[in-house]
Task: structure prediction
Amino acid sequence: MRVAVVGGGAIGLACAWYLRRGGADVIVLERDGVGEAASLGNGGLITPGLSNPLPAPGVMGQALRWMLSPDSPFLLRPRLDPALAAWCWRFWRSCSREQYLIGMRALLALGAHTVELYDGLAADGVEFELHDEGLLFLFRTARALNEEAAVLAELQREGYRGAVHALSVSEAQALDPAVGDGISGALHAPAERSVRPETLTRGLTVALRARGVEVREGVRVESLTRDGAGGGWRIRCAGSEDAVADRVVVACGPWTGALLAPLGVRVRQEPAKGYSVTAVGEGVTPRHPLYLSEAKVACTPFAGGVRLAGTVEINGFDLTINRRRLAAVTAAPAGYLRDWRPVSPELEWAGLRPLSADSLPLIGKAPGQEGLFVATGHGKLGITLAPATGAALAPLVLDDRLVAELVPLRLDR
Ligand SMILES: Cc1cc2nc3c(=O)[nH]c(=O)nc-3n(C[C@H](O)[C@H](O)[C@H](O)COP(=O)(O)OP(=O)(O)OC[C@H]3O[C@@H](n4cnc5c(N)ncnc54)[C@H](O)[C@@H]3O)c2cc1C
Result:
């Protein structure tokens, strides 16, 4: 069976990987270079421990307060757009406790084996930079610590299998000497991992090509149409010859909806911009990936640099870097770390998370379109869930077998 994957981000490449492993003849079609969109400068946390959906009880009030502050972690710029209004309405509906728990269970179920799947990629020869020190949550206030501890306890009750250890300030400093005196406490989730995401997409691309997968870059897919009576698809490409395939997986991140709209397939998500700075720094460098809790900033050490990543800005497809918000991300370590500060940034970056209204991925069959599949909507968890998405979607594409984890993630939910 020939399968075309449209979109060469972490999700598309992971889908291609598991489809190839399942025996398909796979082609990946990427508009720009692989891994150059949201999958490039993100925080790289592999973190089932952050599987709490964004819409949650009380979050609307918090979001409105944040919108009044120009350097807060969240911003929504209102615009006259029925799709945005519908997205906001669905987000609000998803904030009930019942929906929040349904969402949490769905994210935990999809991510249950994510660490094993990452280990499996490495064992199969995919080369990427993986770290296994766990994730250290740092808190300036006891209130934030108690709130996050309650979320993690709830995640454990709902199926999160990792341990969570509460640490005093001195215990946190013993674990990671970069931790400063300004925190009130920490939580360590040792099962979590982190990856330098650019190495993941690069490693997958190299491994896919080595296994005979054609990865075409600089090829924008313009349209998808049925190809004759055989049930296949014709994929019209700008800048390259058309492709034909028996099945198509569309994994175009926030651009997925634009490609599928002419087929009458609605993909309810918004681009959610975030920023990152990757820099070497001065002072004691963190050894662990850190989550700077009140600032909502991930601080991820890689070989040769540290990345600070954060903010959620709902403002269409605009990729402009708002210097004030980026400065807030860059300044975040000051409240948490002993003396590490970023200097001479190697990369200042903005990327668009594909964020569905209930913050659950949209994975499965495109309603009403035989042989067409979608994998998007991963929001803040696309790196965490990329291998799990590919592993769960491949049986549906290849054998029409729907695994249980995908039931709550179907597009027409
Ligand atoms: C600041 C920030 C921090 C983050 N931190 C983390 C984290 O720590 N952990 C985590 O798990 N997740 C994190 N994320 C989320 C993660 O980055 C995303 O969920 C993930 O990268 C989405 O991957 P994707 O493949 O769906 O989309 P993308 O990476 O955007 O890939 C989609 C691809 O489709 C291509 N495309 C679009 N249209 C077409 C077309 N018509 N034809 C051909 N190709 C097309 C695009 O060029 C693009 O390469 C973060 C995101 C941000 C912004």
Observations:
- The longest strand covers residues 341-356.
- The first helix runs from residue 10 to 21.
- The chain has a mean pLDDT of 96.
